[in-house]
# Entry
Amino acid sequence: MRVLSLAPSATATVAALGGSDRLVGVTAHSRDVDAPAVGGWLNPDFDRVADLDPDVVLTSDALQREVRDDLRDRGFDVRHVEPATLDDVLSSFAEIGDAVGLPEAGAELEAESRETVRAIRDEAPEDGPVVYCEEWSDPPMAAGNWVPDVVEAAGGRYPFVNAGERSREVDASAVEAADPEHAVVHVCGKGDRVDPDFAGRGWDLDADVHVLDDSLLNQPSPRLLDGLETLAARIRGD
# Structure
């Protein structure tokens, strides 16, 4: 099956399913895959997509709806997932497995991932620390979507955004009032190449600051399970 992935999360999921050899094209954001790039996440080269003649095209997130619709108008079979919560992310593994002809692998990956989440959640403290997660720093934005679920599963409390809601801009007073014990910085597109300076912005936080590779929390793929394990270890002091 010829699979074209236009979402880094879908690319990572296909790889975790053992389907890397089915990928005939990816975006420029998926640098670890041996497949030709067809442009950016929101601006793929549609002529290049046609040249690769995929059996299925994978897209993700509300921001890719226009790309999805354009490709469908051009006659491509597009499978689109749009996870908003941690449960949605886990369900998407089986959906992507079905889409690329690996349904058993998809179901197995979902089941294993749910067991990982359950095991980590079972070890979470009852009254864990407040955790602030920042996915963008200019302006500061508290992470939403599945991140609140991940914080809760890791054993923390997250009073900034409800699970399933989009990330939102926050100011110093709102974060300071929540008095987080941990501040996690995972800026989109920066990997772990961030030097957070809360004091330099004038924020008065008494928190342990952690910089995580952004793919560990921002990407709705199996990488999110690595992010959950990492976050749990950081906030529990393991």
